[in-house]
Amino acid sequence: TSLVYHERCIGLFAFVEIVVDHYKQLDLRRRNYQWSAQLFHLVDTNNDGWIGQAEFAQIFAGVRPKYSSREVQMLFANVARNAGTLQISLPSFQVLSHQLMSNGVFFTRAPAQSAHDDRARQAAEERELSAQERRARQVRRENEQMLQRVYENWSTFSETYFKVMVALDSSPEVRHRIVASRIRQLGYRFQKH
């Protein structure tokens, strides 16, 4: 088959590169958000979803490059002011930490925390949950694991996916183009999450 190029079109390989780059950015953001959530929960001892300046400073004690206490205070004040609160929520912290990590800042775990502390905290949380909440949490974990597998296998799968989409889109049969449209809709849903 011959490819006809128009001024508003891009080549298949350029498109694939754009999509792969987009997924890499999404994966980086997802990883940064997960790491930020872990750091946030280490200092959010009352589990209310908010941290104050002291907890914020605890997180920044392990940041590389090192921030001065004044810089940490200014960061906290800016985020809190933008949120219109005196504390910082998890989503606000995730946005900030993702921006910082994307610019080369490295967050480490507080030295006093260990895997044992994490397991003890998780076990205490599990005891407090009802059966329905435990099931919902399990489903979320399974979904996260499935998404992780999709992200990990995207580079292998994407080539086949695009070949199938090209074949379906170029098929003279209407039912093939309908299938391609449905697959594309699923892809859009996946990209939104």
Shape: extended
State mean pLDDT (0 to 100 scale).
Answer: 77
- Number of separate helices: 7
Spatially, the strands of the biggest sheet line up as: 1-3
What is the subunit arrangement here? single chain
Head-to-tail CA distance between termini: 35 Å
Element order: H for helix, E for strand:
HEHEHEHEHHH
What does the main sheet amount to? 2 strands, antiparallel
Helical content (DSSP H or I, runs of 4+): over 70%
- Secondary structural class: mainly alpha
- The unreliable regions are none
Percentage of residues in strands: under 5%
Strand tally: 4
Task: Compose a concise summary of this entry.
The protein is mostly helical and 193 residues long.
Tell me about this structure.
The protein has 193 residues and is mainly alpha-helical. It has 7 helices and 4 strands, in the order H-E-H-E-H-E-H-E-H-H-H. Helix 1 packs across helix 4, helix 2 crosses helix 3 and helix 6 (131-170) crosses helix 7. It is extended and about 65 Å long. The model has no long low-confidence stretch (mean pLDDT 77).
Layout of secondary structure:
Layout: H1 12-43, E1 50-51, H2 53-60, E2 63-64, H3 69-83, E3 88-89, H4 90-102, E4 106-107, H5 115-128, H6 131-170, H7 174-192
Antiparallel strand pairs: 1-3, 2-4
Helix pairs in contact: 1-4, 1-6, 2-3, 6-7
Features:
two-stranded antiparallel ribbon, 193 residues, 4% strand, mainly alpha, single chain
